[in-house]
Specification:
Length: 968
C-alpha cells in the first residue's frame, strides 16, 4: 500500500512536470486552455461534431461531465479546443482531474468509462488527446489511435486499459509525448520495436507496463534521439549491461526503478547520460556500481537509489555532487558512520538515509545543509546526541531519527528555529525531552512520534499549542499523569492517538461523536492500553475505527450506544479490565466490527445471539469471564472468523453444529468451561485450517475421533482434563505440521523466555510469538487406554508431549528418541511398564520430564541431557526403577524381567493431586505448557498473532490500519 502510494506520488510529480510540455506552444492558441476557449465562437466542422457525438455515445459518464456536449458549437464543449480559423478540433482533454483520495467517491464517479468509438479518427487534425485517470476497465488500447497522424500528445495513463499495446501507435511519427503509465501491470508489450517509429518522441512513460517479455530491452528506445524523459518504473524490464552506442544522451529524466538489472549491477552506459537531472533507480537490489558512476553526472539534481544494496563508498562519492537537491538512499547497505563530507551537499532539500546500518553519531555538518526540508535518518544504529545545530535548519519540515540508539536530553534550544517543522519522529531512542511547562514551540506539528522516549512524568503541556496534529504517538513515554481536560478537546481532531503503556490515570477520554466529521477521520485510531485508567465509560466512541482500552482498570458496564449512533468501529479491544454486567446487545449494531476482544473481564450472562450478525468479525475473544449458557449457534454465521476464544467461562451443553461453518478458523480455544459433548467429527472434517485447538478442562467424553488427524495444519492439540476414553488414534502422524514443520514461517527454537508463568505456576501463557513455533500434543487426565501408538514417535516436531494421568499400558516406544525437539515429556500416572528406552537420552532439548507413578522398571538411562534432570520425583512411584537420581543403586536392586509388569506397591489415588503439584520442582511450568497453555494478549503480541494466522493476513491488513511503529 505504502509503495503504491509512493508510485502514485511520483507519477503525479511527473505529470506535473509534463503538464507544461512545449507541445502546446506548437498549437496556434498558445499554452493555456483558457486562451483556447477564446476561440470557442468559431464554428466547428460538422463532420467532427458528429464524430465527437458518436464518441460521446460510446462513453459512460456517471457524473455527467460531458453535459456541455450538446448543440452546434462543439468548440465550446468541455475538454475541446479548436483551431482559431478552421475550427478543426485540435485538443481533446478528458482527463479526470479530481485527486484520487482513496476514500473519496467523487474521484471514482468522475471517471469516464465505456467504449472508445473509432469515430475519433475523423478528428484528423487532433494534436492532443488526454484520456488519463479514467476507467476503461479491461478494454484494449484501440489500434485506430495509430491513425491520428497529427497527434503530438497522447496520455492514456491510469485509465484501466488492458492487454497488449497495439503496435500501430508506432505510426505516430509526430508524437512528442506518450504516457501509457500506471496501468497496474495490465498493459503489456512483448516487443518494444514499435517505439522506434516514434521518431519525434521527447517523453515516454511506460511505468508499470508489463515489459517482462520485451526481449529487445532498451534497444528500440535507444532509437529515439530526442528523448528527454523516460519513465520505465516497475516494468520488470530486463536491463542489459551493454548498449552498443547510446543515442538517448539528451535524457534529463530517467526512471528505471523496479526492473531487472543484469547481475544486479548498474550498467556502465548510464555513465554517458551526463545531462541527467533526475535519476531514479530505486527498488532494484543494485550492488555497488563500477567506480565513479555518478562522477560525470554533474547536472544531477534528484537521485533516488532507495532499496538497493549500495554501500557507504557510493554515499561518500556522491558527496561531490553538490548540485543534488534530493537524495534518497533508504534501505541500502550503508554501514559505518555518515561521512562528514555530506556537508558539501549544500543544495540538498531532501535527505533520506533511513533503514541502513549507519553507526556513530550524526555529523554536525548536516546542520550546514541550510536548505533541508526533509531529513530522515531513522532505522539505523546511530548513537550519541542530536547535534544542537540541527535546530538551525529553519526550513526543516520533516525530521525523523526514530529507531536508533540516540541518547541525551532534548531541550527547547534544539527546536528553537524549526518554525516550519510538521513531522517529528524521535521514537525508539534513549532520548529524553526536557522542556518547560510553559514552552510554546515555534512549530505546528502534524505528526508527533515520540514513542519509547522519555516525555513525562507530567503530561506534556506544550501539546496544547499544537492545533494541527493528526498523528500522535507517545506510547511508552514514561508519562504518569492524568489526561488534562484540554487534551480531550484536542484529541477530537487527531486521526491516530497512541498513548498506550504509560501510567495515565483517571477516566479515559470522554468520547463525543462529531456531527460532521471529514472523511479523513474515517480511520481514526485510539490506543490507550496498558495505563491506569479507572472508573467507568460513559459512552463508546463508535466513530473511531480502532479503539484499544485494554489492560486498564476500567469498571462498570460496557456502555450502551446512543440511539441513532452509526458505528464505524472495526476493532474494539476492552480486554483485561474489570468490566462487569453482560455483553450489551447494542454491540451487534457495530456492523463493521472485525475484531472484538472482551477477554479477562468480569462479564457474566449469556452471549448475545445477535453477535452472529457481525459478519466481518475475524477475532472474537471472550475468554476468562463468567459467561454462561450455551455457545449460541448463531456464532456459526461468522464464517470469516480466524480466532475464537471462549475459554475460561461457564459455558455448558454441546457444541452447536453450526460451528462447522467456521472453516477459516485458525485458533479455537474452548478450554476451561463445562461443555459436555463428544468431540464431533466435523471438527476434523470441516475446520481444516485449524492450527490451535484447545478443549482442556471440559466434560468431553467418548473416543478421540480419527477425523482429528485430518487437521494437517494443527500445531497445538490440547484435549487434557476431560473424560475421553478409548485408544489414542494411530493416525496422528497425518498431522503434517507436527511431522514436517513445513508450516513454519521461520526455523527457530521454541524459546523458553517467551513462556510466562502466571497464577502460581499453574497456568502458562503462550505469547503468540512463541506460538508460531510451538508444537504440542496434550491428552492428559482422561481415561485413555491401550499403548502409546508408535505413530506418535513420527511427530518429530513436537516440543511438548503430555499423556499423563490416563490408563495407558505397554512400554515407552523405543523410538521416543526420534522426538528430538521435545522439551517436555510427561507420561506420569499411567500403567506403563518395562524399561525406560536408552534412546530417551537422545532428547537433547528435554528440560522437563515426568515418568512418575507408572510401572517402569530397570536402570534409569543416563548421559546427555538426562544427566541434568536430577530431580528424583521424575521417576518416583515406579518401584522397579533404579539408579541415579533415585537413591537405590541398581546393583542392590533386583533386576526385573524385561517388559514384565511390576507391581507398584505405592499405588496412587486419582483424586489426590496435592503431591503432584507440590513435588515436581523446576521445569513444572514448562512441563505443563502444553496442558494449560492458553492465549492471553498484550497489544505488542498482536502482530505475532497475525503472523500465526498468517495466510489470512492480507485480508486483515486491508481492514485495519495501524501506525507503523506499532508493529516494529
Ligand atoms: C468519418 O466521417 C465520414 C463522413 O464524413 C463518415 O462516413 C465515417 O463513417 C466517419 N468515420 C467514422 C469512423 O465515424
Ligand atoms: C507479464 O506479461 C507476460 C507476457 O507478456 C505474462 O506471461 C506474465 O504473466 C505477465 N505478468 C503479470 C504479472 O501479469
Ligand atoms: C541511434 O538512432 C539512430 C536514429 O534513430 C538510429 O539509426 C541508430 O540505429 C541508433 N543507434 C543505435 C545504436 O541504436
Ligand atoms: C556477475 O557479478 C559477479 C560478481 O560481481 C561476476 O563475477 C560475474 O562475472 C558477473 N556476471 C555477469 C554475467 O556479468
Amino acid at each position: 500500500m505504502e509503495h503504491h502510494l509512493l508510485c502514485t506520488f511520483s507519477s503525479f510529480l511527473f505529470l506535473f512536470l509534463f503538464s507544461y510540455i512545449p507541445i502546446t506552444s506548437q498549437l496556434p492558441y498558445g499554452s493555456s486552455s483558457k486562451q483556447a476557449h477564446n476561440y470557442s465562437n468559431v464554428s466547428c466542422v460538422e463532420n467532427e461534431r458528429q464524430a465527437l457525438l458518436q464518441f460521446k455515445h460510446g462513453l459512460t459518464d456517471e457524473s455527467n461531465r460531458l453535459s456541455s456536449w450538446v448543440g452546434e458549437s462543439c468548440c465550446s464543449w468541455e475538454g475541446i479546443s479548436c483551431h482559431k480559423t478552421s475550427g478543426s478540433v485540435l485538443k481533446l482533454d478528458l482527463r479526470n482531474t479530481l485527486p484520487p483520495y482513496f476514500d473519496d467517491n467523487d474521484y471514482f464517479k468522475n471517471r469516464l468509462g465505456g467504449q472508445l468509438s473509432p469515430s475519433l479518427v475523423n478528428l484528423t487534425n487532433l494534436r492532443y488527446l488526454d484520456l488519463s485517470s479514467n476507467n476503461f476497465s479491461g478494454i484494449q488500447v484501440p489500434a485506430f489511435l495509430g491513425l491520428l497522424k497529427n497527434l503530438r500528445y497522447l496520455n492514456l495513463s491510469s485509465a484501466g486499459f488492458d492487454g497488449e499495446i497495439p503496435h500501430h501507435l508506432g505510426n505516430l511519427s509526430h508524437l512528442r509525448y506518450l504516457d501509457l503509465g500506471d496501468s497496474g501491470f495490465s498493459l503489456r508489450t512483448k516487443d518494444l520495436g514499435w517505439v522506434a517509429g516514434l521518431s519525434s518522441l521527447e517523453g515516454l512513460v511506460l511505468s508499470s507496463v508489463n515489459l517482462t517479455a520485451a526481449r529487445d530491452g532498451l534497444q528500440s528506445i535507444n532509437m529515439l534521439p530526442s528523448l528527454t524523459t523516460l519513465d520505465l518504473n516497475g516494468c520488470g524490464l530486463f536491463i542489459h549491461p551493454h548498449l552498443s552506442h547510446i543515442n538517448f544522451t539528451s535524457l534529463a529524466f530517467l526512471d528505471l526503478g523496479e526492473n531487472n538489472f543484469s547481475n544486479y549491477t548498474a550498467p556502465p552506459w548510464l555513465r554517458n547520460l551526463t545531462g541527467l537531472h533526475d535519476l531514479r533507480l530505486g527498488g532494484n537490489d543494485l550492488s555497488d556500481p563500477i567506480h565513479g558512476l555518478f562522477d560525470q553526472m554533474t547536472s544531477l539534481v534528484y537521485l533516488d537509489l532507495s532499496s538497493n544494496r549500495f554501500d557507504a563508498s557510493t554515499l561518500k562519492s556522491l558527496c561531490n555532487a553538490s548540485s543534488l537537491t534530493y537524495l534518497d538512499m533508504r534501505f541500502n547497505n550503508l554501514q559505518g558512520s555518515i561521512p562528514s563530507e555530506i556537508g558539501q551537499l549544500i543544495n540538498l532539500t531532501y535527505l533520506d538515509l533511513s533503514g541502513n546500518n549507519l553507526q556513530g553519531s550524526i555529523p554536525s555538518e548536516i546542520g550546514q545543509l541550510s536548505k533541508l526540508t526533509n531529513l530522515s535518518l531513522s532505522d539505523n544504529e546511530l548513537n550519541g546526541t542530536i547535534p544542537i545545530n540541527l535546530g538551525q535548519l529553519t526550513k526543516l519540515q520533516a525530521f525523523d531519527v526514530g529507531d536508533n540508539s540516540l541518547t541525551g536530553v532534548l531541550s527547547e534550544d534544539h527546536f528553537a528555529k524549526l518554525r516550519e517543522l510538521k513531522s517529528l519522529d524521535l521514537s525508539g531512542n534513549s532520548l529524553a525531552l526536557n522542556v518547560s511547562s510553559s514552552w510554546v514551540p515555534p512549530f505546528q506539528l502534524h505528526e508527533i512520534r515520540m514513542g519509547s522516549i522519555i516525555v513525562g512524568a507530567r503530561f506534556p503541556a506544550w501539546l496544547r499549542t499544537q492545533k494541527e496534529v493528526w498523528e500522535l504517538d507517545m506510547r511508552n513515554a514514561s508519562i504518569s499523569d492524568a489526561i488534562p481536560s484540554w487534551f480531550r478537546v484536542l484529541c477530537h481532531n487527531i486521526t491516530s492517538v497512541d498513548l498506550s503503556s504509560n501510567s495515565l490515570t483517571g477516566n479515559p477520554l470522554e468520547f463525543k461523536q462529531l456531527k460532521h466529521r471529514p472523511s479523513r477521520y474515517r480511520y481514526r485510531e485510539i490506543f490507550l492500553s496498558s495505563n491506569k485508567f479507572d472508573g467507568s465509560l460513559k459512552s463508546l466512541p463508535l466513530d473511531i475505527s480502532y479503539l484499544d482500552l485494554s489492560h486498564n482498570f476500567l469498571t462498570g458496564h460496557i456502555p450502551q450506544l446512543e440511539v441513532g449512533q452509526t458505528s464505524v468501529v472495526q476493532s474494539l479491544l476492552l480486554n483485561d479490565n474489570r468490566f462487569t454486567g453482560t455483553i450489551p446487545e447494542d454491540l451487534c449494531k457495530s456492523e463493521n466490527l472485525s475484531e472484538l476482544d472482551l477477554s479477562n473481564n468480569l462479564l457474566s450472562g449469556s452471549v448475545p445471539l445477535c453477535l452472529g450478525n457481525l459478519r466481518d468479525l475475524w477475532l472474537l475473544n471472550l475468554a476468562n469471564n463468567s459467561l454462561s449458557g450455551q455457545i449460541p449457534s448463531s456464532l456459526g454465521n461468522l464464517w470469516g472468523l480466524l480466532g475464537l476464544h471462549l475459554n475460561g467461562n461457564k459455558f455448558v451443553g454441546k457444541l452447536p453444529t453450526s460451528m462447522q461453518n467456521l472453516s477459516n478458523l485458525r485458533i479455537l480455544d474452548l478450554g476451561d468451561n463445562g461443555l459436555k459433548d463428544i468431540i464431533p467429527a466435523w471438527i476434523g472434517e470441516r475446520l481444516s485450517n485449524l492450527k490451535f485447538l484447545r478443549f482442556q478442562s471440559n466434560n468431553f467424553h467418548g473416543a478421540i475421533s480419527d477425523t482429528l488427524c485430518q487437521l494437517s495444519h494443527l500445531r497445538v492439540l490440547n484435549l487434557a482434563h476431560n473424560n475421553l476414553s478409548g485408544f489414542i488414534p494411530h493416525c496422528f502422524n497425518n498431522i503434517s505440521a507436527m511431522v514436517s514443520g513445513l508450516d513454519d514461517n521461520r526455523n527457530s527454537n521454541f524459546s523458553q523466555e517467551s513462556l510466562q508463568d502466571i497464577k502460581g505456576g499453574r497456568e502458562v501463557e503462550y505469547s503468540p510469538g512463541s506460538l508460531q513455533f510451538v508444537k504440542s500434543l496434550s491428552l492428559s487426565a482422561n481415561n485413555l487406554v491401550g499403548e502409546i501408538p508408535d505413530e506418535i514417535m513420527e511427530l518429530v516436531q513436537l516440543q511438548v508431549l503430555n499423556l499423563s494421568q490416563n490408563h495407558l499400558t505397554g512400554t515407552i516406544p523405543d523410538k521416543i528418541g526420534n522426538l528430538k525437539q521435545l522439551e517436555t515429556l510427561d507420561l506420569s500416572m499411567n500403567e506403563i511398564f518395562g524399561a525406560i528406552p536408552e534412546s530417551l537420552s537422545d532428547l537433547y532439548s528435554l528440560n522437563s520430564l515426568n515418568l512418575s507413578h507408572n510401572k517402569l522398571s530397570g536402570p534409569i538411562p543416563s548421559g546427555n541431557q538426562l544427566q541434568t534432570l536430577t530431580d528424583p520425583s521424575i521417576y518416583e512411584g515406579n518401584s522397579g526403577l533404579c539408579g541415579k537420581p533415585l537413591p537405590n543403586n541398581c546393583w542392590e536392586h533386583k533386576l526385573p524381567a524385561k517388559n514384565g509388569p511390576i507391581d507398584d506397591d505405592e499405588g496412587h489415588s486419582e483424586s489426590d493431586w496435592s503431591w503432584f503439584y507440590a513435588g515436581i520442582g523446576p521445569g513444572f511450568a514448562a512441563g505443563l505448557s502444553g496442558v494449560l497453555g492458553i492465549l492471553l494478549f498484550k497489544k505488542s503480541w498482536r502482530y505475532a498473532y497475525f503472523k500465526f494466522i498468517e495466510s489470512a493476513c492480507d485480508k486483515i491488513w486491508v481492514k485495519t490500519t495501524r501506525p507503523r511503529r506499532n508493529f516494529r
